[in-house]
Specification:
single chain; mainly alpha; 13 helices; 70% helix
């Protein structure tokens, strides 16, 4: 479950910060895809998965910077720009893959991370292997949850992010730079999205396949809403959707009589059900999706 949840958690945490500051980036899917490709390429060329993750994070940051330039800097529509970022990532990764590796017809296997067993805890019967024998990226993603939650609700910087997302004009009068904060959180989202994509190609499948993000960026967007824009809530929602993904694989492995198409669409159906069940009680940041211009 943690294996399937990790890329969703990393992507959703970054999107939580962006939306808290009033920016909705549906180009998250593209950030994951570009991160997966860059990480696979870096690991393939150098044999170092750490360098691959670094390259994945940089690729996510570059796409996020482009998104920030168009939406925060130039005031472009956030939804339209996000869709464009997704299309750009799909096309760019496909073209670059063929240019670098050619049309091989075979998946390229790359160096990846080895599971890191935590001393003593990993030896606990049954629970130990399930919870304490994962790659470092899994532990990193879980560690970020309390850190981000503390920062967002108990620090000056976190409160400034919330102020920008709720009432940017009022925040500006208090000396808070709305454009600077929105740009920084979008870059953070890009880095985390790139790392999430890196996890897909370096720890989840050990290769790159076109379109391998498979809608996880959109599921992460749903997770942010389902988690009520709070890191702790996002973590709980991620476990739910990650569990659905893991259940999908278990059902296929057990030879379930259900048609495999129904099993494959299980996480996406649960996404729709969860969003429909959330109702109208959810309260998004008041300035979410609204461009801001200094007066």
């Amino acid at each position: 479950m943690f294996i399937a949840s990790t890329p969703l958690l990393l992507a959703a945490l970054g999107e939580t910060f962006a939306q808290r500051a009033g920016v909705i980036n549906i180009g998250l899917e593209g950030l994951l895809l570009s991160g997966a490709f860059a990480a696979m390429t870096g690991s393939y060329m150098t044999g170092s998965p750490v360098f691959g993750v670094l390259l994945g994070a940089i690729s996510g940051a570059i796409l996020a910077a482009l998104f920030a330039l168009l939406t925060i800097g130039l005031g472009a529509n956030q939804i339209v720009t996000g869709v464009s970022i997704n299309l750009l990532a799909i096309g760019m990764t496909g073209v670059c893959y063929r240019a670098i590796f050619g049309v091989t017809g075979q998946a390229l296997i790359v160096a990846t991370f080895s599971p890191l067993a935590l001393p003593f805890l990993s030896e606990i019967p049954f629970f130990g292997p399930a919870f304490f024998q994962h790659t470092p990226l899994v532990y990193l993603s879980i560690l970020l949850v309390p850190l981000f939650n503390f920062f967002l609700f108990h620090t000056r910087g976190g409160l400034q992010i919330q102020a920008v997302g709720e009432h940017p004009q009022a925040a500006e009068t208090l000396g808070i730079s709305v454009l600077k904060i929105r740009t920084l959180v979008v870059l953070l989202e890009g880095i985390l999205g790139g790392i999430a994509g890196s996890y897909l190609s370096l720890a989840y499948s050990n290769t790159f396949i076109e379109g391998m993000s498979a809608g996880r960026g959109f599921i992460a967007l749903a997770i942010v809403i389902f988690g009520r824009w709070r890191p702790i809530g996002v973590f709980a929602a991620t476990l739910f959707f990650g569990g659905a993904t893991a259940l999908q694989f278990h059902l296929q492995a057990l030879g379930s009589s259900l048609p495999y198409q129904f099993v494959l669409m299980l996480p996406y159906v649960l996404t729709l059900i969860a969003l429909a069940g959330s109702g109208t009680a959810l309260s998004a940041p008041a300035a979410l999706g609204e461009p801001y211009k200094r007066e």
